[in-house]
Amino acid sequence: MKSLNLNIVILALLFPWGCGKTEVVPVPVGNMNEYKDRGYGFSIRYPEQWIQLGAVGRALFTESQEMADKFIDPSKGIEGGRVLVEVFPFNEMSAGDAIAAGESTLKTGQADLSPQTEVTVGGKKSVKIPYSIQATSKTKIYGYEIYVPGDTATYKLTVEGYGDQFKAYTGVFDSMVASFKLPVVVLTKPDVWQASPSMSSLDTKYFVLPYPENMEFVDVKKGDKDYVVELKADRQDVTLHIDVFGAVGLTADKVWEQNKGRYRARGTGQTTVDGQKTYWVDYSPMTNVSSRAYFTVKNDKVIRTTLNWFAPKKEIYFPVLEGMVKSIRLK
Known about the structure:
Elements: H1 2-14, E1 32-36, E2 43-47, E3 51-52, E4 58-62, H2 65-72, E5 81-89, H3 95-108, E6 112-113, E7 117-121, E8 124-134, E9 140-149, E10 153-162, H4 165-168, H5 170-179, E11 199-203, E12 207-212, E13 216-217, E14 227-232, E15 239-246, H6 252-259, E16 267-273, E17 276-286, E18 289-298, E19 301-310, H7 314-326, E20 329-330
Antiparallel strand pairs: 1-2, 3-4, 4-5, 5-10, 6-8, 7-8, 8-9, 9-10, 11-12, 12-20, 13-14, 14-15, 15-19, 16-17, 17-18, 18-19
């Protein structure tokens, strides 16, 4: 009997079945890409194998769509981690209100909150709120929110890991938070137009277009087009115009071939809009006005986006208009 007991002890030491869960293997940080928000100017670095699924003012970083889905519906997707950066302009919500709203949302979602702590992020003293959420009967989502005060807005960083993945991604999370940079506010002369950091979004059946709130809609005739919209800045000759019409089964290449001869081109090129092949042409319709037209095809519709800007002040207007084109999401 003593020999049997000794063998059991030896086996327990060699094979510790009762020691609990398997040790969590840390996810290496590796190389990182930089994301800079086109609307608000903040930047953050993220692993090069991750993807960005958000929009202007709400950037979501994770490894895959399936990993993002898991945080929304525990019955779907795969476990992992994610980092979300959101912007709350001061003209819409104060820093204190943003924190209170965040806590309220967590409590509504049955989160177990830990006491607030003070951390430094982006060179600013910030508020950190750790929490956990019971996702399933066996698994919790662990995370924390950090509220960073900027010059014109509060920046909220939400860091979450599904179950043991929160610990596994600790190195990645820490590196991303440490890389966060607030935008540099550049003071401009009162007579120089500047795009508002506050963004709105135009949602149509063909596309979604984020735009600065200080751009105005212009009344335009639809004519024979399926859809037409135009926004302008502070000048009549600074506009973004989109018209949608049938592609009649033609590809982007064929549409471009049919239309490029209508312009006195100063330059042409190829790019993508929301992943779709897009051709562009630069031209000048009148003195001191420059233009660029983009031709994109999606779901047998041509989305033609035309930019017009006051040529002597291209550095002020063109980057804003071009940024709007790059932020278009097609349907």
